[in-house]
Amino acid sequence: MQRASTTFEDRTLRQIVSTTIGGTSARLRLANQFGTEPLTVRNVHVARSTGGSNVDTRTDRAVTFGGTGEITIPAGGAAVSDPVEFEVPALGNVAISFHLPGTSGAATIHGLANRDNYVAGGDQAAGGSLSGARKAGSYYFLAGLDVVNDRAAGSLVAFGASITDGYGTTFGANRGWPQLLARRIADSGRTVGVLNTGISGNKLTREGSGESATTRFQRDVLHQPGVRWVIISDTALNDLGDPDPPPPAELTAALQQLVALAQGSGITVLCSTLTPYQGAGYWNESGERGRTAYNDFVRSPDSGCDGVLDQAAITQDQATPSRFAGTYDSGDHLHPNEAGLKAIADAVDLSIFD
User: Fold this and answer.
1) pLDDT per residue over 87-110, tens digit each?
2) Which of 233, 88, 105 is nearest to 162 (CA)?
3) What radius of gyration do the chain's Cα atoms show?
4) 239 backbone dihedrals φ, ψ, rounded to 5°
5) How far apart are CA 327 and CA 325, in angstroms?
6) Residue 316: beta bridge partners?
7) How far apart are CA 225 and CA 237, in angstroms?
8) Measured on CA atoms in the order 335, 154, 347, 246, is the torsion positive or negative?
9) Which residues contact 13 (CB under 8 A, 6 or more apart)?
10) Segment 189-222, tens digit of pLDDT
């Protein structure tokens, strides 16, 4: 998550979350980590989405924090709700609504929702539909929906940048590789939550669309509930796109740091190679040499990774490995298209979840 200049006053936010596993109850996590002043949130509700800003009121449940329906989160802080009995649908859409009665200050956001969320005037959080709602393309103050399922083996965190975030995929269709992987896992009969913490524009070692990956790794991976696996994906591509990119040794040292942190917490780590990007606006030969060196390291025993998701080998043109295969190029030469994202999801060995 990161800071935005957006502020709200006396507004209802209704935000749609796509689930991976179902469950019998849930908790909400709210964040004011990048806020500039205390954030008061009240009249919080969770319900099944029925499309647009509408919800099924038969499923609506009020959410409390410490037994009360209102909470004030200090600037830099976060909050976790009490568990609420709620039948969470697997691979479904859940609407989370709350009222911001005062002035919010700078919003803590996830910039790319890749779906419509909704903002309406006044307190409409308990309504089946929202009057006068406008659409919003980000998530505001919402850090997660924790699902309770006694059969779950744990959760997998997909950690990366725009390729992980789902940039360029069909709007509202959940066709990023983490979502496609979640469906594969479910179809295999396994119960594993998949948490997407990709941030478009994020970098491994430097600030860029929020904190660096090394700075946010503890919050966005290690502190996730029930995490047992992580896939470290594409953030280093954005470092290589800098006018003055870090040397490959700095990138591989940062990767080793994240691997050691995760394994020290009992988390199995899959490391991804970096996909080709020749033809993209920030490609140059120096960056390509850095990508090759990084990928060679990921594939080597020196990386310490528990396994490798070889996104480069999956998506590259065999005659010119610095470029995408035509069937997998979205057209910007930086992001795989949906066929490429499916190929990435299909390449994950599901036996790691046994």
Assistant:
1) 999 999 999 999 999 999 999 999
2) 233
3) 20
4) -65, -45
5) 5
6) 324
7) 28
8) positive
9) 97, 98, 100, 117, 118, 119, 136, 140, 141, 142
10) 999 999 999 999 999 999 988 999 999 999 999 9
pLDDT of res. 208: 83
- Give me the residue label for tokens 């990921």: 298
Structure-token pair, residue 270: 């899959």
Cα separation of the two ends of the chain? 31
94: which 2 tokens? 């859940």
- Vertex 94 angle, CA 91 and 96, to 5°: 150
The tokens for 105 are: 């200050």
Encoded tokens for 43: 């009249």
- The residue behind tokens 């490429």 is 340
Q: Packing angle between helix 177-187 and helix 338-346, nearest 10 degrees?
A: 40
Length of the chain as a residue count: 354
Q: Torsions phi, psi of 341, nearest 5?
A: -65, -40
Q: For the sheet with 307-309, list strands across it.
A: 192-196, 154-159, 227-232, 268-272, 307-309
The amino acid occupying position 219 is: R
Q: Tell me the C-alpha distance between 130 and 248, whole Å.
A: 50
Label residue 226 by pLDDT band (50, 70, 90): very high
The DSSP output letter for 222 is I
The helix (H) or strand (E) run that includes residue 340 is helix 338-346
**What is the rounded CA–CA span in Å between residue 334 and residue 96?**
33
- For residues 322 and 306, what is the distance between their CA atoms, to the nearest angstrom? 26
320 contacts: CB under 8 Å, gap ≥ 6: 278
Given a contact cutoff of 8 angstroms between Cβ atoms, the answer to whether 234 and 280 are in contact is no
Half-sphere exposure of 245 (CA within 13 A, CB side): 25
Average pLDDT, the chain: 97
**Structure-block tokens of residue 314:** 């999956």
Residue from 220, 198, 224, 187 nearest 91 by CA: 187
String of DSSP letters for 223-248? TSTTEEEEEE-SHHHHHHTSSSPPPH
Pick from 229, 237, 231: which is nearest to 204 by CA?
Answer: 237
Report which secondary-structure segment, H or E, holds 272: strand 268-272
